[in-house]
Task: inverse folding
């Protein structure tokens, strides 16, 4: 159940990040990149023992959003 909840939260945070930093092409690659970034941000939160995405801890959600925004922005810079 933990992995499933991480993926669902990652998709929701990824959707939020893809709306904040829209891509030029299809929305699917942007959503996938943002979801991966959210999962990495959630992992960093667990690594530093700041909460998990499964428990919807606010600090973990903020780190997931930061990871999603960062990965989406880096991918957009690389695509230029």
Result:
């Amino acid at each position: 159940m933990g992995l499933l909840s991480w993926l669902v939260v990652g998709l929701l945070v990824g959707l939020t990040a893809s709306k904040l930093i829209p891509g030029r092409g299809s929305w699917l690659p942007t959503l996938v990149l943002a979801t991966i970034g959210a999962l990495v941000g959630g992992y960093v939160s667990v690594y530093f023992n700041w909460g998990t995405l499964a428990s919807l801890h606010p600090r973990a959600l903020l780190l997931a959003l930061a990871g999603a925004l960062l990965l989406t922005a880096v991918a957009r810079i690389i695509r230029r």
User: Anything to note?
Assistant: Residues 2-79 form one domain. The helical segments are 2-20, 27-47, 58-79.
